Amino acid sequence: MAALRTTTSRLLSSSLRSTLRPCLTTRTYATVEGTEPIRKLAESMSATQPPISEKHTSTIQDPSKSENPKTKTFHVYRWSPERPTEKPKMQSYTLDLNKTGPMMLDALIRIKNEVDPTLTFRRSCREGICGSCAMNIDGVNTLACLCRIPTDTKHESRIYPLPHTYVVKDLVPDLTQFYKQYKSIKPYLQRATPSPDGREIRQTPADRKKLDGLYECILCACCSTSCPSYWWNSEQYLGPAVLLQSYRWLADSRDEHKGERKAMLDNNMSLYRCHTILNCSRTCPKGLNPGKAIAEIKKGMAFS
Fold this sequence. Notes:
Elements: H1 2-20, H2 36-45, E1 59-60, E2 71-78, E3 89-96, H3 104-115, E4 134-137, E5 140-143, E6 157-160, E7 167-169, E8 172-173, H4 176-184, H5 205-209, H6 228-233, H7 239-250, H8 258-265, H9 279-283, H10 290-303
């Protein structure tokens, strides 16, 4: 009963904080349809507003179909801070795949350029390097530039912002807290001892190999926003992406502040909210394994 009271008070205080924060009262909260138990729990804990179904909104047609169109329907999450009293909705668009590139980002760009210029989303490199176009596509957190459009025209694709993030507009999530957490781990080389010969600080090929699978992280936040522990404890739990970056510096033979880095993680929330669900490793669009990195940190903490 004591544990139940503690959990209840924590949930209530979290809900109270979210309702009292003035900067967030006019924003909606991203949810994904088809996860009914999660959606109901989210509604009870925050100001979550599930989007109006595409069945209750109009469908915007492709303005320039080919002679033998291969038409596919995309349902896209829409919400604008310019109309804060309106509920978010799923807006439907039909596109001719014969005139659309192979990736989901190609479809979104074509919708914005030719169908609906009010659609808002982030994108930059189109090469899976910048992490800007991270979103939830057909129930999976991924990068729109790396996600191929299913060629089955009977399959209607659904596109949402990253789940359990506050929405700036449409498919743009607010990652302010995510980047604050990244800054908190001091993601740079910390070293007091200068190089003996005044040149760059070198390391052996074996030490360099330990960084493979860590330095490639592009901070797209796909893994963190797929983690249930991060959904409910995002203010204190650092999440898979930031912990993977933290281990990147713990594993670096050139860094001399490993003790301080470990001390920062030595509390109940920053690291140990991970319960090895491994959603993070399954969803990473770069094929990295944040779950393994977190396990290595825990092992290092236990034997240090």
